[in-house]
Design brief:
Elements lengths: L6 E5 L3 H11 L4 E5 L2 H9 L7 E5 L7 H10 L8 E5 L4 H10 L3 E4 L4 H45 L3 E6 L4 E4 L1 H7 L3 H4 L5 H4 L15 H8 L3 E9 L5 E13 L2 E11 L1 H15 L9 H18 L3 E8 L2 H8 L1 H17 L6 E4 L4 E6 L3 H14 L4 E3 L2 E3 L3 E8 L6 H17 L4 E4 L2 H19 L1
Parallel strand pairs: 1-2, 1-3, 3-4, 4-5, 16-17
Antiparallel strand pairs: 6-7, 6-10, 8-9, 9-10, 11-13, 11-16, 12-13, 14-15
Helix pairs in contact: 2-3, 12-13
Length: 459
């Protein structure tokens, strides 16, 4: 008999009963036999001899079958072993007592071989089925626990805030990232309604309309919201830009609530803002650069065309700036450019545009006519009388300013820019630290100079 065969334990104080039952069962099972109830308990509790079925006599001298059955059922290691009473008793109260204690069947004496084999086989198969079901349940429970642990680990380690609500918007689960983002503990959030994180009431601010709430949209409309940028409010009142996604939570067709995902986009916003700034502003001085200046130029033209008004375009060049760079170094030169930009801003109105377009070249757009432009230019020249102090150096600056007026000197940016450059060149040729308005003669002289230079090259 293979030791993998089921084990049948026979317990009877009559040797002839042990012999008969053992002879019938040994062809199919590994048979263990004992005349003692105490010995039967020992065999049942030993994993090596734990039986798949016990055929137990009721009437035994030292320990009767009822006592043995009670002890088997009281022990977690043996309580699931099926016990069949073998007895000559046929009173109904005896059967009732046995079934109440947990016996699975009765076989009465004298024995019928076919009945014994059938009853034993049936209960061994039932036990195997129960064991398989128990093992499967244990596996499923372990698998569920493993998956729950994995899910909890994922929720705990992800940097996205995640919380789930019921149909009333009440939070039922929340991960640590959501707690950190909202500035609350899990205990504070579980059972709370998180509409307030989308609809803050702080001071005089009214609650936002309910229809714009992502939670409300999903709960009422059974819709999906995917990566919508919005703002949430922390417990401490601070607002945080986030990317929010809301998904309906369903079991089959039944709507249970929502799952809300919050991604903190503060760093992304800051990065995009930095990119935006670098594309429109000068890194050194913080002034408008060429890209944004073109846009400001177009807006100024459109506005003044509609209003039939005038504005001035300045082109400013620092005189002898190369000498400062060469003699004192680029670091001092950069400080000079920053200092000059700050002083220039002080002489202008807040609505005016000041741009740095080259190393030492600046452009100003001013809403004024010729008189106002001249006054601003005089103010700047006067402001530069006071030297800049850069470290141990006192640096006196002078500038050459060329001014062109819209629409007198041009009706488009390219023409105004060119004419302001011609006026600036005239101021520089005259010795610098001066301003000149553009005149038509300046372009004529520039053309003559270009012709003369070309003739010299040909000569």
């Amino acid at each position: 008999m293979s030791f993998s065969a089921p084990i049948a334990l026979i317990v009877d104080d009559q040797p002839e009963n042990l012999a008969v039952l053992g002879e019938w069962l040994q062809s199919r099972y590994r048979v263990l036999a004992t005349k003692s109830g105490a010995r039967a308990l020992t065999l049942a509790r030993d994993p090596a001899t734990a039986p798949d079925v016990v055929l137990l006599d009721i009437m035994m001298p030292d320990m009767d079958g009822y006592t043995v059955l009670e002890q088997l059922k009281a022990d977690p290691a043996t309580r699931d072993i099926p016990v069949i009473f073998i007895t000559a008793l046929d009173a109904a109260e005896d059967e009732q007592r046995g079934f109440a204690l947990g016996v699975v069947d009765y076989i009465t004496k004298p024995f019928n071989p076919a009945l014994v084999l059938a009853r034993v086989a049936t209960h061994i198969e039932l036990k195997r089925a129960r064991d398989a079901l128990r093992d499967q349940n244990a596996y499923l429970e372990a698998e569920l626990a493993r998956r729950a642990a994995e899910t909890e680990l994922i929720l705990a380690t992800t940097d996205e805030g995640i919380f789930g609500t019921d149909l009333q918007g009440v939070i039922r689960f929340v991960n640590p990232a959501a707690c950190s983002l909202l500035g609350c503990s899990a205990d504070e959030l579980i059972g709370d309604t998180r509409y307030c994180c989308f609809h803050p009431i702080t001071g005089a601010r009214d609650q936002d309309p309910c229809e714009v709430c992502p939670l409300q949209v999903v709960l009422c409309g059974d819709l999906v919201i995917h990566r919508r940028e919005t703002t949430i409010w922390r417990k401490d009142g601070r607002d945080v830009p986030v990317e929010v996604s809301c998904m309906p939570l369903r079991r089959g067709e039944q709507m249970l609530g929502t799952v809300v995902t919050l991604r903190d986009i503060r760093e992304r916003k800051a990065y995009l803002s930095q990119l935006e700034r670098r594309s429109h502003y000068d890194d050194l001085t913080g002034l408008v650069n060429r890209n944004l200046l073109r846009d400001r130029f177009e807006h100024a033209l459109t506005r003044h065309q509609q209003n039939a008004s005038t504005f001035a375009v300045w082109l400013i060049n620092l005189d002898r700036f190369k000498e400062i760079n060469d003699n004192l170094g680029q670091e001092v030169g950069d400080d000079v450019l920053r200092g000059f930009a700050a002083r220039l801003l002080q002489t202008l109105a807040q609505a005016d545009t000041l741009a740095r377009i080259g190393n030492d070249e600046f452009v100003v757009l001013i809403d004024c006519g010729e008189t106002g432009a001249a006054l601003y230019a005089q103010n700047l020249l006067h402001a530069l009388v006071t030297p800049l102090r850069i470290g141990q150096h006192e640096i006196y600056l002078s500038v050459s300013i060329g001014i062109a007026l819209y629409p007198k000197d041009g009706a488009e940016p390219r023409v105004l820019w060119r004419n302001a450059a011609a006026a600036m060149y005239r101021a520089k040729v005259a010795g610098g630290h001066a301003f000149h308005f553009y005149t038509a003669e300046m372009n004529a002289r520039s053309f003559e100079r270009m012709e003369f230079e070309a003739a010299l090259h040909r000569a």
